[in-house]
Design a protein that fits this description.
By secondary structure, the chain is mainly alpha-helical. It has helices spanning 7-22, 27-34, 38-46, 53-63, 67-86.
Length: 87
């Protein structure tokens, strides 16, 4: 299923996937730690559902990343994209 979210949310989604992979975790292992089905992780990674703020914080904790670091990366990528579109 193709995501209908904004470009900015797609940036967030890609950062979350990259963080999970960098931590060498599977969708299943993240889901197990969250006490959720694997489909929960698959759906937010595929853009079929959004994470709310609390879910984001819980996922970041399970992945072992500072949520502020992810937000900084997203902010930087959005700023870069905005600057490129102005040229």
């Amino acid at each position: 299923m193709k995501s209908v979210f904004s470009h900015e949310y797609e940036t967030f989604r890609r950062c979350m996937i990259a963080a999970r992979k960098e931590a060498q975790l599977t969708q299943e292992s993240v889901a197990k730690s969250l006490k959720k089905p694997q489909s929960f992780v698959a759906k937010y990674e595929n853009g079929e559902r959004r994470l709310d703020v609390i879910e984001f914080l819980l996922v970041a904790h399970v992945i072992g990343v500072d949520p502020c670091d992810i937000i900084r990366k997203i902010s930087q990528k959005i700023s870069e994209a905005s600057c490129e579109s102005e040229i």
